[in-house]
Amino acid sequence: MQSATNSEIIASPQPPDFSQFLNDGLSLYPFQARMIEKNLNSPSPIIYNGSSPGVGKTVEALTYANVRLSYLQPTERTLLIVAPAALVPLWVDEANKWLQRGTRFVVVSYTKLVVNQSLYNELKSFKWAGIIFDEAHKCRTMTAKTTFASIALWRSAFEFIYLASGTPIEYAGTDLFPVLAATSTYLPYLSDKTRMLCSDYDKFGMTFSYPLPNQMSKGDERRFKDVRNAPELQEMIYNEFKFFFRDLRENVLTELPEVSSTVVPITLKRTQTMDVARLDELMNYQAFYDLGAIDAHVATLRRLLGIAKATNTEFLDFAEEILSQGEPLVIMAYHVEVLEFLRQHFQRHNPVVRSGAVSAMQKHLDYKAFQEGKSQLFLGQIAASGEGISLTRSCNLIMLEWDWFPSKVFQAISRLIRVTQMRKPNIYFISSNNNFDTAMMKNLKQLDVNIAKVLD
What we know:
Elements: H1 30-41, E1 46-49, H2 57-70, E2 78-83, H3 88-98, E3 104-109, H4 110-115, H5 117-125, E4 128-134, H6 145-153, E5 157-164, H7 177-184, H8 192-197, H9 201-208, E6 210-211, E7 224-225, H10 230-240, E8 244-245, H11 249-252, E9 260-265, H12 270-282, H13 291-294, H14 298-310, H15 313-324, E10 329-333, H16 336-345, E11 352-354, H17 360-371, E12 377-381, H18 382-385, E13 396-399, H19 406-413, E14 426-431, H20 435-455
Parallel strand pairs: 1-5, 1-8, 2-3, 2-4, 4-5, 9-14, 10-12, 10-13, 11-12, 13-14
Antiparallel strand pairs: 6-7
């Protein structure tokens, strides 16, 4: 693979004009044109767009591809797009809209790479001009089949690899290791020290993260948490690799309505708190990450807490008040059981549910139903609804439950805070009088600060 610098794209004082690479009726925001320009000027054939969710990384990736493919013979203009299964229909729509005519493309899910060996072998044997990996943080675990299959595909591209993720670091500094290790083999300008770090997972982890207790390791792979030595890691990905680029939403979308964030306290009744009191007993702020090692029933207790919050009349009345004003509403939760209760309770509002239990095509249909006004209530499981979709028909989002890590919560919230949002987004965090809620919010805030030290 080669960098795009051969195409004589050079920096200019004004936002570059990419109109010749866009289909009729389409245009870019100035900051998107700037991002594509920076991507094209990178000496690396591998680009990592780590911009905040909601700024249009899909458009930037496809326009970058248009520029790179324009220098090839028509028969060579081939593009492979890898995305989470639920986002494949969206990528097909966007590729048809943004890719220039004559480009042959295939969109495939990460899951298909792993479970359909014959398809994977066929994709791997084909010579792609470029490959786009959406939600590239899916390749964060060194020993995961998804990571292995995805990075092995890199060798099938002869022009470029484009990685995109609004949350490049989800859990620890080691989340970047698989991509950095693979990218380092393409970059002759890296220092010996960096090459050594990117060839030794344990050394990289001990340098930029904190090791978890041995009992939480999977097999022979040591697991890590959090981020340390953030300035050194930031220097590596931005200035040495020269492949990582990030626009913060608040910097480039300065005209977006200000976001309102409110903690809504609720009091769990005695009958509700009996089931979840054990969580209070387990709470230890210093050992928060290690709860799974302390008590095997934490997952069950978390589910019970979620159900207790969902069935709480204070929360239900709060949500009903928004809906009764004719406002569409988004509620995010962690557990499928919580979403199912809410679906039944709010049946008169024709809710749609997006969870891991729903097929990719049904997710797409339900998403369109909500955005087109056929449903007033979107019930989303954080794991299934936090990536790739825009829920800007609503300006009200309730986080009933939270994920362990801020990147997941940030992604979920970002479904409303996007370039197409015209109204002031109102984000409500439902916090109970259970100590686990308090500790989880404290943990989310601290980990978010540590990650920002690297990326921002």
